[in-house]
Design brief:
Blueprint lengths: L1 H42 L9 H15 L3 H7 L1 H8 L5 H25 L3 H9 L4 H35 L6 H11 L4 H29 L3
Membrane topology: Multi-pass membrane protein
Keywords: Cell membrane, Membrane, Transmembrane, Transmembrane helix, Transport
Protein name: Methionine ABC transporter permease MetI
């Protein structure tokens, strides 16, 4: 068994970095698009300083629509868009497209939930003294919701690790692809066992790191 693990180390190393690439790209997209979307869902809600029923409804429908689609179906559904964007339908970059689309609404809802934990009295006080919407978002919402945003990013990262393994079933690369090609198709139990252990360790590390950072930035 040990000899077999040593034999697959080069491929396991490549698969690990492919997984990290997929998750990293998707997390970046989730922050760039999902974070503003989540803030928008919060500030346009009833009784808040940018209340807008139409925007709230449209963004909410888009988020709920994407979140309601199982990832494996979303993966297949986005193949034409993925091919147009990356000129391929296999590999980690191609898989990153569907992972990013799944990550955006997932993180947006977490951001909205984290923002709702903020005492509305603080926001109302800022509005009363004439603070601009951007100032309220930048100086109140972000600092107050920071621990929740980091915890949410941790949850998103862990979910994306699971999704990336699923992407391996359609040639997405990464640890999931290695497990399918060797562990399943070739009945190699050693490879299957090793990939599962690597995924478990990776998830535990991400969870620990996320919890540590969230506690470090929590001023409460």
């Amino acid at each position: 068994m040990l000899d077999r693990i040593i034999d697959i180390l080069p491929e396991l190393n490549t698969a690990f970095f492919e997984t990290m690439l997929m998750v990293g790209i998707s997390l970046l997209v989730a922050i760039v698009i999902g974070l503003p979307m989540g803030i928008l869902l919060y500030v346009t809600d009833k009784g808040l300083f940018l209340e807008n029923k139409f925007v709230k409804l449209v963004v909410g429908i888009i988020v709920n629509l994407i979140r309601s689609i199982p990832f494996i179906i979303l993966l297949v559904f986005l193949i034409p868009f993925t091919k147009w964007l990356t000129h391929t339908t296999i590999g980690p970059l191609a898989a990153s497209v569907s992972l990013s689309v799944a990550a955006i609404p997932f993180y947006a809802r977490i951001v909205e939930s984290a923002a709702r934990e903020i005492d509305k009295g603080v926001v109302e006080a800022a509005v009363a003294v004439g603070a601009s919407p951007w100032m309220i978002i930048k100086d109140i919402i972000f600092p107050e919701a920071k621990p929740g945003l980091i915890s949410g990013l941790t949850i998103t990262a862990i979910s994306l690790i699971g999704y990336s393994a699923m992407a391996g079933t359609v040639g997405g690369g990464g640890i999931g692809d290695l497990a399918i090609r060797y562990g399943y198709y070739r009945y190699d139990d050693t490879v299957m066992f090793t990939t599962v252990i690597v995924l478990i360790v990776l998830v535990q590390f991400v969870q620990y790191l996320g919890d540590f950072i969230a506690k470090a930035v929590n001023k409460r």
